[in-house]
Prior knowledge:
Blueprint: H1 3-35, H2 56-63, H3 67-98, H4 104-113, H5 123-132, H6 139-143, H7 151-162, H8 166-174, H9 179-190, H10 192-207, H11 211-216, H12 225-230, H13 240-271
Amino acid sequence: MSRAAHSLMRVFLYALVFLILFVYLFPLIWQFSTSIKHLDEVFRGFNIFPAQPMWENYQVAWSSFKVGRYLLNTVIVACTVTLGQIICCSMAGYAFARLRFPGRDAIFYLYLATMMIPSTVTLIPSYIIVLELGLVDSISGLILPFIFGSALGTFLVRQYLMSIPGDLEDAAKIDGAGYFTIWTRVMLPMSKPALATTAVMTLVSQWNSLVWPLIVIQSDRWKVLSVGLADFRLYRNIQWNTMMAAVVTATLPMIIILFMAQRFFIQGIQFSGMNK
């Protein structure tokens, strides 16, 4: 291939990348643009830049539509579930990767098979359990069903830990370290990429969760952002600019977290496919 053809190919690839990037980013750009428009300007032609930015829409969304309260509830639920998932998945991943006990692989594959069960199948049984425990319409009902780990997170941590040389674990055992010390002092610090990947996926999943909070929570006290945003449809005259301001408020934290954790996320996905 000549130099001119190679340069033309690179230009084509860059143009394709920019086109795909624009397709993905345009809804976010339009969403932010709508959030600072006047209500009469929202459907007035194809204009990305508003005539006069109205930052007051964010204040209205924060106060009048209780976005502040919903955001706080979402942060509490998502962060608590993420912390619980990291602890439980790291413990289970360490047990399945480094400990030897009868039926270890069979139990792991059986646990992994639960990923094949649709969440809608377990929705009613989960609600009945929460109802019998008296946790309906409480923040505990949002947290407890998801805090004790997941098959995907355990799989990622287990695969990552299997790529760590066993000499480190043997050296810790020679120094007199037990299983708990090895898990906290050796395995946890070395499995940061896998834990970051699990944390990001759990955080995004809980942040965007709608069906379970919609079923469990009835009062405004413990509503999360996804349910609060869905309540906009109940208003007869939807204020699209204010609603988009609330959506931007709900989306921005996830974008920031994904940018901050992308290096660990890529490493976690890359090395979780390795096996010993």
